[in-house]
Amino acid sequence: MTEIGDWTRGEHTASGVTHTTYRRGTGPGVVVIAEIPGITAEVIAFADEVVALGCTVVLPHLFGDVPSSSSPVAGAKSMAQACVNREFNKLHLRQTSPIADWLRSLARDLHAELGGPGIGALGMCFTGGFALAMMVDETTVAPVLAQPSLPFPVGRARAADLNLSDADLAKVKERAAAGCQVLGLRYTGDIAVGTRFETLTEELGDAFIRVEFPGRKHSTLTMHRQQEGVDAVLGFFRDKLLEA
User: Fold this and answer.
1) CATH architecture entry for 4-242
2) Residue ranges of the chain whose pLDDT lies below 50
């Protein structure tokens, strides 16, 4: 398995905010946003599969160590960091997390450099909805939501919320109606996802592609990896970025 040391370290700044990035590969760009606890060996292994597909992958470092352990202690440490970070909307309804602006800027710069039909974006768990927020910018043409979990599903309204402002949701719906599809993955018994898949189906219709697995596990592409899910993501990126 490839270690993070084989990736090129860089950084991206937008609106005065700077985050470290790790990059590898050639071809169209894909932004893979790690889940809590951070850029673990499992996240790197999945990202390497996207690289092998023929894409340039960028991993933003938003929380946790690099590389991060998958231990409960590492998870608690990363969650504490994320919960006090104002870039992430954890509880507010109908509000886009501020980190979306930084991620959109990263995608625009990557696309300007690499060309192609656009950028792929994949968020996981805590960051799952960020890929949907990136879709507001037409640079992102292949958004993937793996078990999106923000805002925290405290109560019915938050469990159904998409972590988007009304204006951003309107733009997402406009792009979906124009043909931009959204891929979503989850375990059907995962309480962290709440009822967001139902909201996504209601708002986006057939443009929302659901890949679901039975059970109460969580991390579809990493710790509780489902090969069918991995294959669906790779196929989605192939169709939207390499064969478009």
Assistant:
1) 3-Layer(aba) Sandwich (3.40)
2) 1
